[in-house]
Fold this sequence. Notes:
Layout: E1 2-6, E2 12-14, E3 22-24, E4 27-28, E5 54-58, H1 61-64, E6 72-75, H2 86-89, H3 91-98, E7 104-109, H4 118-121, E8 126-132, H5 138-144, H6 151-163, E9 167-175, H7 182-188, E10 195-200, H8 203-206, H9 208-217, H10 219-226, H11 228-244, E11 249-253
Parallel strand pairs: 1-5, 3-6, 6-7, 7-8, 8-9, 9-10, 10-11
Antiparallel strand pairs: 2-3, 4-5
Helix pairs in contact: 9-10, 10-11
This protein binds iron/sulfur cluster.
Amino acid sequence: xxxxxxxxxxxxxxxxxxxxxxxxxxxxxxxxxxxxxxxxxxxxxxxxxxxxxxxxxxxxxxxxxxxxxxxxxxxxxxxxxxxxxxxxxxxxxxxxxxxxxxxxxxxxxxxxxxxxxxxxxxxxxxxxxxxxxxxxxxxxxxxxxxxxxxxxxxxxxxxxxxxxxxxxxxxxxxxxxxxxxxxxxxxxxxxxxxxxxxxxxxxxxxxxxxxxxxxxxxxxxxxxxxxxxxxxxxxxxxxxxxxxxxxxxxxxxxxxxxxxxx
Length: 262
Ligand code: SF4
């Protein structure tokens, strides 16, 4: 892993993402190395090598985090704040320690490392912690998310956060036909989260490497995601299941333009 230390000018970035005012990225790049990662578009501006092989570390982030911002802040958008490197650097922890406790903060991660910072998370008045959970089997995870913790670790993380009184949500993403186990995720997280965000795979942002892997290792999945009608049928199946079971879904993102090719 190539580590690049940088001094940033600002750590809070204004965003047009609905419901959010700022994103905060103390890291750029991510050791979880998800092959479908949408954040790898950033490689256009960073000449460090393949996505997942480098992490830019904003070493002055803790000082910049002291700025008093109003509105909803999301951590993070082009990295995971609890990626493996955080276990050594404690940069996310330092950033949290320096942040205003009145800030509305939403943290999203795939890692159980977040539980290390429960003592600080509990000090925030308006904080929610989300875990990305997709129920991949270990074989699938090792291909698609080789650096990220397994399903079971993410579930036990949600349980611990919930037990500590921290507001939690589950981000079921990316939903990939036949690989993402939506029902298993819902059953395993029952009573552990306040709500769910469901996001289907964005095939065009996921990139060529991801497409190649699907074509080679998961041809049936590839057939479905390539076929609009089949993909809509799959989306409808998931939607019906969630509605039928009264699952509290705050956002359902399909990344599909229009139905029936219109
Ligand atoms: S954890 Fe998130 S930011 Fe990191 S590689 Fe995976 S999708 Fe990208």
